[in-house]
Design goal:
Elements: H1 4-12, H2 19-30, H3 37-50, H4 55-68, H5 74-101, E1 109-112, H6 117-124, E2 132-136, H7 143-153, E3 158-161, H8 166-169, E4 175-178, E5 182-183, E6 187-191, H9 194-204, E7 208-211, E8 246-250, E9 256-259, E10 262-264, H10 266-277
Parallel strand pairs: 1-2, 1-4, 2-3, 4-7, 7-9
Antiparallel strand pairs: 5-6, 6-8, 9-10
Helix pairs in contact: 1-2, 2-4, 2-5, 3-4, 4-5, 5-6
Length: 283
């Protein structure tokens, strides 16, 4: 297991990818900082700030703090509760994968953007249905290559395209499946380019489903902007480069939200998530 600082750096640098993996890594890292409640609190603050647009990480750490703040034996309590939350995340992931795979019909062409372990899980679970996949390379960090490698390596016919070719290839798809880093009452947050994808989906009347752990629900979400050197390491002087990691897509463009609880309309999901995790928003 990596130490605390290594984990924080790996989260910041996107060596650890995907909301589920980031949350699990953050929970394990917190177990290194248990000398006092203050030390744990500071560690949680550092981890949460490593990737601001990750409510699954933030909410899971908030849950951990709530569970252990009155514990007499802090170290053992943090170890025990973090394992329970990791298990909860893993179980939710499995249920969401199963629920999403039911949407994938025989011979479907699936379009996806970026990398989501939940999306790839649902696709892999549907391999026997004779499916095909179109995925984006997802610049500038090329997370789509991970998606393409996983799916093609499993023998699923996969075509990777440049991001700017979305509109040209989307009409070939039967369904769009994307993950999300965060979801609120009015929108969801995913890799930049998702909003444009959702507009094309509406134009071509192709259903877009968002796959998520309900613990990713949040009332306030900060959009992360990354270093411009990811776009152009030796850019000309006097050139301004903006590098948003995510964009915001209105829920009105979403056909359904798939979680551990099933497939719901956005309004149904929001009502359910607020009831389940509303107590966290005081942090």
């Amino acid at each position: 297991m990596k130490n605390f600082n290594e984990t924080v750096n790996d989260i910041k640098s996107i060596k650890i990818q995907g909301a589920t993996n980031i949350a699990k890594a953050g929970l394990r890292a917190a177990t290194f900082k248990t000398k006092s409640l203050d030390e744990l609190s500071q560690a949680i603050h550092t981890l949460k700030n490593a990737r601001p647009t990750e409510p699954l990480l933030q909410n899971s750490l908030n849950i951990l703090y709530e569970k252990v703040k009155d514990a007499k034996k802090l170290k053992s309590a943090v170890s025990s509760e973090s394992k329970k939350i990791v298990k909860q995340i893993e179980e939710a992931h499995g249920k969401t994968v199963r629920n999403a795979s039911k949407l994938i019909k025989k011979n479907f062409v699936i379009f996806t953007h970026c990398h989501s372990s939940t999306v790839t899980g649902a696709i892999l679970a549907s391999k026997s249905k004779g499916i095909e996949v179109i995925n984006t390379e997802t610049r500038p960090r090329y997370q789509g290559r991970l998606t393409a490698k996983e799916l093609s390596g499993a023998g699923i016919p996969t075509t990777m395209i440049v991001d700017s070719a979305m509109a040209d290839f989307l009409p070939n798809a039967d369904i769009i499946l994307v993950g999300t880093d965060a979801i609120s009452e009015e929108f969801f947050v995913n890799k930049v380019g998702t909003f444009g994808l959702s507009l094309f989906a509406k134009m071509y009347n192709i259903p877009l489903y968002v796959l998520t752990n309900s613990m990713k629900f949040a009332e306030e979400i900060e959009i992360e902007y990354r270093n411009s050197k990811e776009i152009w390491s030796k850019a000309p002087k006097n050139l301004s480069i903006i590098n948003p990691a995510f964009d915001v897509t209105p829920l009105e463009l979403v056909k359904g939200i798939v979680s551990e609880h099933g497939v719901h309309t956005p309004k149904q999901f929001v009502k359910m998530a607020k009831k389940e995790y509303g107590y966290l928003f005081k942090f």
